[in-house]
Amino acid sequence: MKRSISTIVLLVLSIGILGAATPDKVVKKIIETGTTDNRTMVHEDFLANRIGGRIVGSHALEDAEKWVAAQFRSWGLEVQVQEVGQINVGFTRGPWYGRNLTDGGTPLHFGTPSYTAGTKGPQRGHVVIAPKTDREFDRMKGTVKGAWVLLDSPSRGFALSFRDSTMLSRLIDAGALGFIQGAETPIQIHYDRAHCFDLTMDTLPTVCDIKLDKAQFDAIYAKVRARGRVELEFDIRNHFFEGPVKYHNILGILRGSKYPNEYVMSGSHLDAYDTATGAIDDGQGTSVNLETARLLATSGAKPKRSIIFSIWTAEEYGLLGSKYFVENKTVPLEKISNYFNRDGGPEVAVSVTVPPAMYDDFVQVCEPLSGINPDFPFEVIKRTAAPGPRPTRAGGSDHAYFAMNGVPTVSLGLRDVKGYGFNYREIWHTDLDLYDKCIPEYMEHSAVVQAVVLYGLANLDHLLSREGLYTD
User: Which of 82, 85, 73, 86 is nearest to 330 (CA)?
Assistant: First the structure.
């Protein structure tokens, strides 16, 4: 039976359309596994609740690095461990406790920056207000020995710089037990930024640096100022150990089958402040990236282009891990199609905003996403060109050095779609950065989205266009 030319054309077009609409079997497997056996929160639980806060120079960060590398290997990924740097003295945080003995033993809400001194057991002492002048110091010098000293300056989370303050040094020499600053809640706690890298076992801090809940601080301050006696007790287990302690990037690589020396990358940072557990900053980002890697590795994915899952170190100390990767040209920067960074809240990935030259590629790659969960439809948004990055405005996370060197750093847009009311600023670098701030359904869905997008971009027959990416 003969068929007309038009009939044959229609048949071919129909087959082509059906083929285009049929999801890749790897994409189907990613979505199936990601919706029925998602392990994002298993990774998060281990990082936040089994390991905890992961400050540079800590045993916790060393343990986390080894664990991440082991996870990548267990999924069949190629693993590269990059030594980024070292710190002379290690730091381990134990429990801490304080109470107001004058007020019936009321517990005190406080924290101490990393790389600051502990108490060497419970320490009791009366409270004095720090003098502002040499004359005031001379008048009260006899009361400083064995005292906790209140500083009339609000805390911003960083350690006091004892070496740079003559008055603080004089108070230490006079026998002060430690210093107390008022801090807004939730209490923001960082590290000894000024001196942690040049600290040695011979120059360890000797007195405590306490950031106390402002309401409690103000009440104590008012009573002491009115010449009332206040006695406080603190037991702070801040410990040091001899280094050097090295810190590392952990790279998991799914090697490309056709373009192994071209790359799509995603990343997050492993280090975290240790007054809490680093569950959000950046445990959530690391957990999503780990699950993205697992979904791709266990789906049988053999992308044309290599995919690198980069778990960075020392982000909180100045983006040191990602900076090392870029400045040492670990891979040719011109061969990176895009670097996706996840370092923020535990919200869900529901969009991507791209320059016009990338738009069609992302529409193609993201086509399966809206069918995963009707609660989280996905949108590809076309934008006009953005200003080119500069060192002072490229951003404060691990995408910055990529962007400053011209690498595309298009990110997935995150939203609190269901209105859980998450406020990142309330947990950022504070004692509330805990596992219960995670939003599992958002994080789990984001891992599936990220896996589909990375796989799709890695399978394009070209790198993403950089046309119109930046305007300068």
Answer: 82
Which residue, among 409, 72, 37, 410, has the nearest Cα to 254 in the 3D structure?
72
CA dihedral 451, 457, 458, 462 (to 10 degrees): 180
CA-closest candidate to residue 185, choices 392, 432, 399: 432
Three-state DSSP state, 80: strand
Q: What's the rounded Cα separation, in Å, for the pair 133 and 135?
A: 5
What's the rounded Cα separation, in Å, for the pair 314 and 275? 16
What φ, ψ does residue 139 adopt, rounded to 5°? -70, -35
Q: How far is CA 201 from CA 56, 67, 91, 204, 247, in A?
A: 17, 29, 11, 6, 19
Using the Cα atoms of residue 152, residue 157, residue 160 and residue 164 in order, give the sign of their dihedral.
negative
Q: What are the structure tokens assigned to 191, written together?
A: 């590290």
Cα separation of the two ends of the chain: 63
412 in Cβ contact with 351 (< 8 Å): yes
**Burial readout 292-311 (b: 16 or more C-beta within 10 A, e: otherwise):** bbbbbbebebebebbbbbbb
Amino acid of residue 86: Q
Query: Quick one: CA torsion of 338, 342, 347, 352, rounded to 10 degrees?
Result: -10
Comparing CA positions, the residue from 304, 204, 326 lying closest to residue 259 is: 304
pLDDT tens-digit series, residues 127-153 = 999 999 999 999 999 999 999 999 999
Read off φ and ψ for residue 433, nearest 5 degrees: -80, 80
pLDDT in tens, 147-199: 999 999 999 999 998 877 899 999 999 999 999 999 999 999 998 777 889 99
φ, ψ of residue 67 to 5 degrees: the values are -65, -45
Cite the DSSP H helix spans in 116-243: 134-140, 166-173, 214-225
Q: Minimal CA–CA distance to 52: which of 300, 364, 257, 275?
A: 275
Pull the structure tokens for residue 335. Answer: 């061969």
Ramachandran angles phi, psi of 131, nearest 5°? -70, 155
Question: Which domains, and CATH codes, for the chain?
Answer: 25-88+244-458 (3.40.630.10), 94-239 (3.50.30.30)
CA 43-44-49 angle, to 5 degrees, is: 110
CA–CA dist 34, 298 (Å, integer):
11
pTM (predicted TM-score): 0.92
Give me the count of residues in the chain.
472
Place of tokens 């509330």: 432
Contact in structure between 324 and 82 (CB atoms under 8 Å): yes
Give the span between the Cα atoms of 67 and 64, in whole angstroms: 5
Which of 300, 446, 459, 297 is closest to 364 using CA atoms? 459
